[in-house]
Amino acid sequence: MNAFDTSKGLLDEGDGSPGTRNNMVHRNAHKRGDDMWDYNFTYYPPGGMGMGMAPMHRHRDGQQSQYKKELDALINLGDHKEDLYFTDNAAIFRFTSSSLFKVVYPLVASSSSGFPIDAFDISTVTYQGGTPDSPLPIYVHQNRGGELNGSSYLGFTKHAYSAFAQVRYAVEGIRKAQVERDKGLNPGSQSRETSSDSIQAHELESGTLVTMHLQDGTREPDEPGVDQPLKLRLTNLGEIVSILVPVLLTGPDTVSGLQSALRKLGDLLSINVEEKLTPNSPDFTAMVSVRTRTFQSASSSCLPEADFRPLSLSLLAHADRQISHPKVPTTTAAWDLASTANIKQRIQEIQQRREQLAQQGREWDIEELAVRVKCAKYVYTVLAIATAFVVGGLVCGFTVGESIVGVDPFNIATFSWLLAGFIILVAKSIRVNEWPWRDFLLGRVTCRSLSELRAVTGANEQDLYLYLLTKESETALITRGPYNKMFVRKEEHSSGGFSIDIKPEIRTLVAAGLILIKVSMQDGSALVCLDLRRGSEKRDSRTSIAHIGHESNDHVCRYPPRQGDRIQDVELNRSPMWNGLRWNKILGIYHAADRKVR
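RESULT FIELD:
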């Protein structure tokens, strides 16, 4: 164990006595932790010392610095109070030093992306997935080299909020400064435009574009950067640095470092970290991106005809396209041309539809092999219609009597009985395959497939798929094919299990925390799935992807559909048919919202 490992207390070894604590420091003096720190407070970046970089607090000639000598003197004194002071400050020093390095190191040019030095798109997105009654905040970050990292851990997204807030303050400050500067240069002109149209018209005039969106409960709907992303053209190096530093603070390394530092501070102060130190952040969605003009022109992911996008231009960064509207598809030009008020109305309709489904789901009994739904209204309506036919036939038989010569009036009653029975049989079999009489009379139905559940409830099929996929960790449902590859609990035998017989769309998987990444290989391209669902860390699922990597029990699509193919479905497989799947570059996030997956 590293003596200054932020994931464990300083007194994990020994009983805390002066001699024990002093000995602990000496025992761990030259051990190297997983995060590449040693006792001398020397930070070694990824790749070790072979990068030609000198460690912190050590001279280039290899001699110990005066600071290190002073620390040795403090330890050798053997005074308990001084040891406590030294170790407590060491924990704080470690966080500040590592945080500074994590901000500075990403500024180093990366050759893994294959782009020029000034071509990059650093982006971080936090979007709201899941269902209304089981929300799932999903965090995704794209670093300078184009590699992706994500998480759906609630504590992680809470700690990331403060970094997004710093970006917002920086963007608003630069925006105000630009407006004041423009007014000073041109007193009679209007303030600088920040709309999307003005940005697109002047993209070639500016080298760097920053896009910021942060929606939370503390912001008014008409403030900039809330309903519509706020875009700024950065005009000088000072503005770029002022934005780039807080943007890098939204990276996963910095956020996880903040979590570790707060845990360590809780150990030092003996307080409840969850209660006292966890940020009290609201439910929020955010997107921040710093994209250069060189990246816009050099990356094929920015081409209109490409089926992959960088994070800032992907489906994840556009919450209004993560939904499916029956009247106006979100992937068509009609959606782009729709007014802001019309788009808001459509989104509200979809949110109401999902909230209604969540309310209905609270009344369902989700068992291991089926979903039991109450449908008393439907049953009583059918029985009322059948009863009306029966009673009408009897009334007709008694009232008509012998008024019609040669006709037995009770034949009409017999016919009405047959018609009533036919109506009940059709009503019982039109929605589900099997409906026992006992369940029918009790006003409930047992659905054994997703299509039956859709027929009974009348809900949107994609909303139902998202609901069951998100709720899988909270229920005991066991699924079977043909389209249950994304579920964790599967029935090995085809005779049992709840049948997932409806194909999900890409946008449905995105809302559930499953993101398809397009990668390049020596003999073509493939799709690799990032699993950011709740509990993915415990399942050892893939939550990050680098340029050079290989498949390890991931959901992959070896042959993505191409334009002109007769079948446009994405076929995912869990296990490859040959010795693994290896790639050499990340192309971007797969961008086909309405494409089906099987």
